[in-house]
């Protein structure tokens, strides 16, 4: 059944009912999914000019070409449907919850003598899954506890009654270590084995009181029967369980199951922490990051995170504690903001986790930025620059005996090549092999264009060459009245010496320094770029000469063919008809006959 479809101008036809609305762009792509108590009012707020919506939302509204909606019974149903649609389609204007990893589960298998083992693949037919766990460490702690308390097999054998009766298996080392009672040889019946499985199931559900009662009663029964060795064993298991519970116990163990959420927000991101509480103990702690798209209020972000995380971690807790006031809780979701007592302590603990996550992210971002800027900071220090050389430009000339004189300019930003800003130059005003004059011309042309277009100047200019080329570049900067506004250096090839304008002696930079290696890398890139350009020009010139030796074929015809076919090899492969399309039948015949003679 197709959903009703409306144009943006037809939003008034939407019903006054709760539901989920979907916006599509002109390509038919889903760009936003939203929920509403009242579809007509909520969707209408986007298209009301007096609604005071922000600039980001206005940008989205301009893209909307089609509206679809689905009516549901309650706002909570709308929340769930919205969550499912966002997970499935990930529209570009919806909040992103940055957490796409697969979480581990513990599987209690559906087979004779069930096993418990970790997995990340959920196949319901295999058995009952417990989790997901926020970390492998947390999962392993629970699994280790269960294997310490109960004799549960870890082998993968098919322990059907027929195979055990047929004596297909032999007991392994686990039996001799006391970790298994040997059901593979019929040394333990399944009903006895399933008693341990039932207690393990209680632990996996977070209900520790039943296994504790079991071990306490067993200990007392063994002591009454004067079996003190067995009583001591049950006592150790009881204490192990108590110790495990004490580690995670944060409030009164009589407190029922509940979820705790807190949000810490900044301009572009929000951080939400989720604590799952069972019998007063934390059984799960998870912090996620949400990227804001439309300047969503914190209440909306938190509600989004609550629905997604409860769905992801399969929570069915009826009470949800939050750190924000909500005017109206959605039907089916009991939200409360405690002011005092144990529940308030849980909110404070959750907030502490969210703030810690935010702090760690900021520190990590700072470390990444510092690592990235380390070389530039070192270069700034070595060259005594007043500002960080974020934007560096380097010039190089290339010519062989004055033929095809060219120059290149390469641009590095943030210590990396910015190839879209590379430039080639044909030398226009200089005759013959004059590197100094050629350098002055290209530097003048580059920064005259920059100034005319109103673009920003680089933080550092590097000239590939010694004092002569550097002086020529300085002359160009002086003529533009920007000398000393931009630092400029020359790097001489022979000894990798760095010169500043007017200095008689080069400055010394450690040959192993990262800053010198960066300058060398930039210089080598400029040289490569210039040489490649020059080689291509000479190649085209040679190809043109080969064609112009043919009687009746001039330079214009040769250039036209080279421009279309790109190389003499492609011209040789071309058919007579292909050549005729470009230069006519007469010239095409001459070229075809010469190249194939």
TrEMBL record:
The gene is uvrC. Residues 264-473 form the UvrC family homology region profile domain. Interacts with UvrB in an incision complex. It is found in: Cytoplasm. The UvrABC repair system catalyzes the recognition and processing of DNA lesions. UvrC both incises the 5' and 3' sides of the lesion. The N-terminal half is responsible for the 3' incision and the C-terminal half is responsible for the 5' incision. The lineage of its organism: Bacteria, Pseudomonadati, Bacteroidota, Cytophagia, Cytophagales. Belongs to the UvrC family. Pfam families: GIY-YIG (PF01541), HHH_5 (PF14520), UvrC_RNaseH (PF22920), UvrC_RNaseH_dom (PF08459). Gene3D superfamilies: 5' to 3' exonuclease, C-terminal subdomain, GIY-YIG endonuclease, UvrC, RNAse H endonuclease domain. The keyword Protease does not apply. Keywords: Cytoplasm, DNA damage, DNA excision, DNA repair, Excision nuclease, SOS response. It comes from Cyclobacterium plantarum. This is UvrABC system protein C.
